[in-house]
Amino acid sequence: MSNNYCRVTLIIITSLSILFSGSFLAAVPLAFSQTDTTTTTSSINNEEIISSQVKSFILDQIVNKSKAAIVIGFVDPNGTRIFSFGNMSTRHNIPVNENTLFNIGSITKTFTTLLLADMVKQGLVNLTDPIERYLPSSVKVPEFNGQKITLEHLATHTSGLPEFPPNLLDNNGNIIESYNANQLYQALSNTKLTRAPGSQFQYSSFGMGLLGQILSLKAGVSYNQLVKDRILNVLGMNDTKITLSQNEINNSFPVGHRGGKEITTPKIPMILADAGAYHSTAPDMLKYISANLGLIHTKLDDAMKLQHLIRHTGVNANPMNYTEYVGLGWRILTNFGTEVIAHTGAINGWNANVAFIPSKQIGVVALCSCDPTDADMGNFGFVLLHLAGPEHLSGKSEAKIHTATRPT
């Protein structure tokens, strides 16, 4: 095994109080490097956190075969732990670590629905409001037999809108990077609903893109600024952002991979940023999970609780065969004894997952510079939570949720 890919950087954080520290590294009490031939002196038993089967999958499938990198984070009432495996890229041949930025893809959608829940709690909007109330009068919003699309329908993927706007791609099948609000409105006006809004779950980045635009119009500020002001600044998620600086791209951002090769990841148009354009780090995502678990309390508590309420049946796409529902943006899975809340994000060459069990106050994040066709972080998260066995690590159940192929 090449030393370039077998080196594993492990950071163990044992104090939850560091989640809001100004400098994350300054608060880390213990850090060391590990190779496959070196034993560690940590007081924490690594096998209890990441099993030998999971570690073998990471090294064999993700690091060596896919040539990618992954950072994993855990949180519970005792604090957080972060593990990292693999290197940034062929050109930037250094290990990833807790400060490495990853695409989080559609996990961004939970930011969008948190904004909605927060605005509902503030009395600014209602979930039952028809979306035409907030859009320019020139936009024709489709209906089905007089039934209108509401904000809740957009937030629960039950609007009846397709997964992507039909006019998002150019003649070569590539995302139009300059895609704008007028084109989004045109796509909406040209859409014909085939069923009543609210009647069926169908995953829709189109609908979520509209929701973020509506909330931005209502607030009178850009979506990016809205997320920063109402979520990121509240939780201290200082490394979560849409646009990266050149220094961050050069030193803190890996290259996406598919089939063992480095690939170019398409740029998401800013008008659809609310559906999947954010980047983040493991520590920031652990802050987010901690707030969702109630391990830390903020002014977003009530909005998060509103997000977590079951609103509609979903699509069963998990290795445990749990029944799936949808809240405001979140997948809610249950065997009617244990409830799991989760969301996966993927864009070409990348995928990520956050999942947590409220009753047990435990959560995980997995950020990977690997395509979901190589390693599905959705299944991976369930294995990390010990809900599914390691035999499901190579499964691709997440794909069942989607009705369209991801744009290139």
Q: How many structural domains in the coordinates?
A: 2
* Structural class designation: alpha+beta
So how many helices? 13
Helix content: 25-40%
**Mind telling me which CATH architecture of the largest domain this is?**
3-Layer(aba) Sandwich
State the fourth-level CATH superfamily of the largest domain.
DD-peptidase/beta-lactamase superfamily
Name of the CATH first level of the largest domain: Alpha Beta
How would a crystallographer describe the biggest sheet? 10 strands, antiparallel
Detail the poorly predicted runs.
1-47
**If strands are numbered along the chain, what order do they take across the biggest sheet?**
2-1-4-3-14-13-12-11-10-9
Mean pLDDT: 88
How much of the sequence lies in strands comes to: 15-25%
Q: Could you tell me the number of beta strands?
A: 14
Elements, N to C (H/E): HEHEHHEEEHHHHHHEEEHHEEEEEEH
Anisotropy-based shape:
globular
Under CATH, the topology of the largest domain can be stated as Beta-lactamase
What is the terminal-to-terminal distance? 32 Å
Topology:
Elements: H1 3-6, E1 8-12, H2 24-27, E2 30-34, H3 46-49, H4 52-65, E3 70-76, E4 79-85, E5 102-103, H5 108-121, H6 151-155, H7 181-189, H8 205-219, H9 223-235, H10 246-251, E6 257-258, E7 261-262, E8 279-280, H11 282-293, H12 301-307, E9 312-313, E10 323-326, E11 331-334, E12 339-347, E13 350-357, E14 362-368, H13 377-384
Helix pairs in contact: 5-8, 5-9, 5-12
